[in-house]
Write a structure and sequence with these properties.
The protein has 17 helices and six strands. The chain is mainly α.
Length: 371
């Protein structure tokens, strides 16, 4: 039923193609093949596949048209009523559109294929860490978890578990490390001066205001761009943050968050425009790219826009705020989410007397807005 064909590569080494072809009444009803570097490995695979096919119902199972991994990704994305986050959606699109594994039949994907995918992602330009590769494989594993019980798509959960174990042992994937990078005041001064100059010359969005708001509000870039004037209650110093990031709920997680007075002042400086409901009507990717490019231009190392949220939360603890008080601003729902900041001692507000608030919202303008 199976054969092994040896072929020579351009460098003189051999490769071995194990192939199975099954015919009934002169017609091919099933065929599959894989290529290996060693004949014993090819033989072992061939024997295992032949045993599976000879088992009761084995041929029927593999002869039934199986969807590809790419089709399973499409179905998962379309039918997930909880919604999936922007990052996960982008990762799954990338796997589907740029990696050969997406074209493989779901019932033929093995742990080897998943490990190979991890290696390919690791070699991808711009992927700098095992934690990034781990995120890709973790997002893909969610499909393996539900594909068969939900849709009878034969993606092998065990193959995924085995692949993840191998990838961890090989150092291909790892958990994300918690960052503790915070901007220094001189770094912020350089960034805001750069952004202010570019904005005044009509070359960029008001990043100096967005950065300042991010620090004092502790908001993520995607949350900042979703805040609307109708969801802003100045008298109560709060705003409704829609679709706040949540590990189990990607949409509809709307939370009222307190806005410190500095954040309210920045909002006041934006000014409401006719027909525009969003306070910061920009795209999150544009904000992140502008921040990254500015840091690169100014020689500021290892600082990300998301670090501004860490800075804002740390500031509140340093000012002596309690966990409930900090959570009312940050939107954290559990002590665990704030535990990493608990070691900070109350040292006062390092932004006291910081000149940038007055530069963004001059005192006279702030007084007028209050009136």
């Amino acid at each position: 039923m199976g054969t092994i064909i040896e072929r020579k590569r351009a460098d003189g080494s051999s490769k071995f193609r194990a192939q199975i072809v099954i015919k009934q009444s002169g017609k091919i009803v099933y065929q599959t093949s894989r290529t290996f570097d060693r004949r014993p490995t090819a033989k072992a695979w061939l024997e295992r596949k032949e045993k599976e096919l000879k088992a009761p119902g084995g041929l029927d199972a593999v002869s039934t048209p199986a969807v590809t991994l790419g089709e399973a990704i499409d179905r998962y994305t379309k039918e997930n009523r909880n919604g999936i986050g922007d990052t996960k959606a982008q990762v799954l699109r990338t796997i589907k559109n740029e990696y050969e594994i997406s074209a493989k039949r779901s019932n033929e994907i093995t742990s080897d294929d998943i490990v190979d995918l991890a290696k390919q992602i690791s070699d991808r330009p711009g992927v700098s860490s095992a934690s990034t590769v781990g995120n890709y494989i973790s997002h893909l594993s969610a499909i393996f978890d539900i594909a068969f019980p939900a849709w009878k798509i034969p993606l092998d959960e065990k193959a995924m578990r085995d692949a993840m174990k191998v990838c961890k042992r090989l150092g291909l994937i790892a958990s994300s490390k918690k960052r503790d990078r915070r901007p220094e005041l001189d770094e912020l001064d350089a960034l805001l001066s750069y952004f202010e100059d570019r904005h005044l010359n009509g070359r960029s969005l008001p990043m100096h205001k967005i950065v300042t708001f991010a620090i004092f509000s502790t908001r993520r870039e995607s949350e900042i761009t979703r805040i609307s004037w109708t969801d802003f209650e100045k008298n109560n110093s709060r705003a409704l943050v829609r679709d706040m990031k949540h590990p189990g709920k990607k949409a509809g997680n709307d939370i009222w968050c307190e806005l410190p007075p500095e954040a309210v002042r920045v909002i006041d400086s934006m000014g409401q425009k006719d027909g525009v409901d969003r306070i910061f009507p920009y795209h999150p990717d544009t904000i992140c790219n502008s921040f990254t490019n500015a840091c690169k231009f100014l020689g500021i190392k290892d600082l990300r826009f998301h670090d501004l949220r860490h800075e804002g939360v740390s500031r509140l603890f340093e000012m002596g705020r309690t966990i409930p008080q900090v959570a009312s601003v940050s939107g954290h729902k559990s002590w665990q989410g704030l535990q990493r900041y608990s070691h900070l001692r109350a040292t006062g507000d390092k932004y006291e007397g910081w000149p940038w608030l007055d530069r963004i919202v001059p005192a006279k303008e702030a007084d007028a807005n209050e009136g």
